[in-house]
Write a structure and sequence with these properties.
Blueprint (H helix, E strand, L loop, with lengths): L1 H15 L7 H9 L2 H12 L7 E10 L7 E8 L9 E7 L4 E8 L2 H7 L11 H12 L2 H9 L6 H7 L1 H7 L25 H8 L2
Antiparallel strand pairs: 1-2, 1-3, 3-4
Helix pairs in contact: 2-9, 5-6
């Protein structure tokens, strides 16, 4: 484990000292190159564990407390609409059609705030992202998503509220996806270490 941490630290330092100028779109394409494969790998793991036809496949981009230049992607599946947050992508998987479709993509917090600044004009390619960000700050995010994609899936908060009495009677509590599990540093590999400057460039495209 220690060797992996040192290796990741050395690679992170090397990336930070890299003076090469990268095109933002090239970084973006590299970052999402295997995204579909990773999403479908999550589907494979959770498909038989979630007893419903439709569920969400989520990925979040997280920083690391010990290696500030390290960025890692975390994938998981969820039976409800997850709470929206910056640096998050959410897709809907349907077992009956074996189809994966995008529900929303949210950028970093600073970009979300900028996109919702009154009078801020965006390129046509970012109008949808701007709409998601506006719904986030207005507090009607899930309603907006359901109308946009013509789905009826509840959020965990809504599900718990509707079934509160039954959950209490059964002595059950819904798991909290916001509690992060301890990161296993032995999982760090060379290909997972990213230059923080490059990531920020991608996120602000």
């Amino acid at each position: 484990m220690i060797e992996n941490i040192l290796s990741a630290s050395e690679l992170a330092a090397k990336a930070a000292s890299d003076t090469t100028t990268y095109k933002a779109m090239e970084v973006a394409h590299a970052w999402v190159e295997d995204l579909y494969d990773q999403l479908m790998e999550s589907v494979r793991i959770y498909r038989d564990k979630i007893d419903q036809d439709e569920f969400c496949v989520v990925y979040v981009i997280a920083s690391d407390p010990l290696l500030p230049t390290l960025r890692r992607r975390k994938f998981y599946c969820w039976p409800y609409l997850p709470a929206p947050r910056p640096n998050q992508g959410v897709f809907l998987y349907k077992k009956s059609s074996d189809r994966l479709s995008r529900l929303w993509i949210l950028p970093i917090a600073e970009s979300m705030a900028e996109l919702t600044t009154p009078g801020f004009v965006v390129d046509k390619n970012y109008e949808l992202m701007q709409a998601w960000c506006k719904a986030f700050f207005k507090g009607n995010f899930w309603q907006f998503i359901r109308k946009q994609h013509n789905i009826s899936m509840l959020s965990q908060e809504e599900f718990d509220h509707l079934n509160k009495a039954d959950l209490i009677e059964a002595g059950l509590e819904s798991p909290n996806p916001r509690v992060s599990e301890t990161f296993d540093f032995s999982k760090i590999q060379a290909g997972q270490v990213e230059n923080a400057g490059n990531i920020l460039a991608f996120q602000n495209v």
